[in-house]
Amino acid sequence: MKRLILVELTRYRTRRAIVLLVLLAALLAAFVAFQSAWDTRPPTEAEIATAQANADIEATRAGLQEDLAQCLKDATSGVAGVPGAEQCREMYAPNTASYLPRDPLSLTGTLKGNGIGIAILVVGLLIIAGSTFAGADWSSGSMRNQVLFEPRRSRVWAAKATAVTLSSGLVALVVLGGFWLSLTLVAADRDVPHGSGVLEDVGWHLLRAVVLAMAAGLGAFALTTVFRGSFATLSVLFTYSVGGEIVFSLLPIDGIARWSLGNNVFGWLETNLRFYDPTTRCIENGTCKGAQHISHLDAGLYLLALLLIALSVSWWSFRRRDI
């Protein structure tokens, strides 16, 4: 079995299309990391001076002084919920940072923005790679020779599935790990404050992204084994992911958005996903309690169920159908 897995790993890394997809994933991650660092670069002395001048001009505006005076007056009224004097000064005192052309680098902000985006891009490319890996054997006709060499089809299927899973996980770990490592080093070089909690969130996000990439590559392999073609597999996945979102948004069923693929993928990747369900009737009459939440456990179980279904059908199909 070990020898079969090594053969499949070699076959995976020598596919030209897969090499190009992995290279594309690495280039995209590097580009997004560079763009994130560049867009949050520290302001120059001239930009700081300009921001300070704009803040000084704003401080002399009559309307601002009137608003500050009114806020201070309300603060002494003793009414509950009214900002205090210190809060009033913070609210209406012009801040130089507000006039700077760029926001500083924030790992928390990246975790909610570009971090999620690059993770989804890498997972998408690994889905194509997993489907390409399986589809090449069927399109070239080499699958027949492989099962002649190893007649126990279950071992062949398991070796291929293991190779895809391990390769997808390794690529995701290197690419996404490099993305987050580079931004963490940039933040450290700029003395950007971030606590241990932020790094812990990044670490758990990276782990979940790698697990998702492994599952996505394995699922793409499983479906391609069923359809025996990459084009059919990618078409089905595209239809389910895009068309499914449209159908879920149109069905008049309360809470059905909880079961959409997109919400569960984001629920798995994000630190704490909260979303408003457009199908919930309470939105129409304004009685909604607030945003809904999908936990990592709920999202993981949903995605795991889809993966197990695909694997079961794939394993049965590979063992029973003619090759």
Automatic annotation (TrEMBL):
Keywords: Membrane, Transmembrane, Transmembrane helix. It comes from the Bacteria. The chain crosses the membrane at residues 115-136, 157-182, 202-224, 231-253, 299-318. Signal peptide: none annotated. PANTHER family: INTEGRAL MEMBRANE PROTEIN-RELATED (PTHR37305), MEMBRANE PROTEIN (PTHR37305:SF1). This is ABC transporter permease. It comes from Nocardioides marmoriginsengisoli.
